[in-house]
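lol ok so funny story. i was supposed to be doing the assay writeup but got distracted and ended up predicting the structure for this chain instead. priorities right. anyway since i did it might as well share w the group, maybe its usefull for someone
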Amino acid sequence: MSTCVVIWPSGPAKSCNPKKSANFKGPTRLDTGTSAPEYKNVSVTRNGANEWKIVDTFYTLQIWGRVSFSLRVLDSDHIEIQYDRISQAEDRGPGKVFLLRRCES
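and the output, tada:
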């Protein structure tokens, strides 16, 4: 198994792409540029000093759904979201990983 190391620019991003962003407001995450723009917490479980297991629900005007993922705080400006696999029938390893950087403003 290989390990990937990501070198982050330090500090918050000077400018952010408003077409692809995520805003966290209490139990709600608002995403732009996705098919499900609003996610609401169903459960949040702490898995360590800087990591949480989260289950969210969403509605797209066509379907209700749930998504589960781990959220890890890397430092004061960066977080990592790793989605769980959709199907546990096949062991294909972990799900998709998103690395997010805080906007300056």
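The beta strands are 22-25, 28-31, 38-46, 51-59, 64-75, 78-83, 97-101. The two ends are 39 Å apart (CA to CA).
back to the writeup now i swear
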